[in-house]
């Protein structure tokens, strides 16, 4: 597995793959601190694009707010490389901040109307940072397929909008949420949780499961579903809800009725750690 540090080299790698004409090129963007959720993305990419998978590891400063955890975000590069190689990555793209944001960088991508919804409402500028760095990665790697987790469902909506608006040639592939045995969605930020918080964090998944049960029993009014989720959170007083939303997955606008494909998403503070979870209602 090759480690690439510059955009030019990544582009050269991608173009060499393309000229060999062997099949699609896959990209898996990550911020490192890789876990089984990331592994599932790399595996899916390796299956669709054998021998032509770039996984990027870049803690992107522009998607963190001024009081967020950019400085302390876990950085585990050697272990990440071992995991990525094991799962079938061909290349790790690990650029410096200066490589991705050259001095004076002032060009940003924003999906207006989407970028201030859900996580974007409580993390101003977050999705602008995400769309910008993913656009840069797409321009550098020129992938046919790019793999993202449903775990960050609002991010997927923002990136689909960006791909459609910019008429990019990259297809977005969404992979299911990977969970711990007890239901907690895997996240690099789970490492911040102490033992008590680890238990409290389960409330996110419990709320999601309760909503899925209600929908299965025929309750489709989002008002009722949101109220039911709030009731589950109310039983875990140590956890503070950031948002509970039932939205159209394309527009991120509130849905009154949970039609198939509706996104039900929650975000909550467990101590000083903000966690998210969601389900696509069927
Ligand atoms: P991150 O490193 O947190 O930026 O995540 C990189 C990619 O991994 C994103 O597309 C995430 O949605 C995805 N991801 C993170 N956690 C999970 C999970 N538990 N299951 C599936 N995909 C995930």
Radius of gyration, whole Å: 19 Å
Query: Which structural class do the helices and strands define?
Result: alpha/beta
Main sheet: strands, sense, barrel: 6 strands, parallel
What helical percentage do the residues reach? 25-40%
Question: What is the CA–CA distance across the termini?
Answer: 39 Å
Textual characterization of the structure:
With 282 residues, this protein is of the alpha/beta class. Helix content is 39%, strand content 18%. The chain is built from ten helices and nine strands. Strand 5, helix 7 and strand 6 form a beta-alpha-beta unit. Helix 1 crosses helix 6, helix 6 crosses helix 7 and helix 9 runs antiparallel to helix 10. The site of adenosine monophosphate has 17 residues, from helix 2 and strand 5. Adenosine monophosphate binds next to helix 2 and strand 5.
What descriptors fit this protein?
single chain; alpha/beta; 3-stranded antiparallel beta sheet; 10 helices; 9 strands; 39% helix; 18% strand; binds adenosine monophosphate
Short précis:
By secondary structure, the protein is an alpha/beta fold. It has 10 helices and 9 strands. The longest helix is centred in the middle third of the chain and has 16 residues, at 126-141.
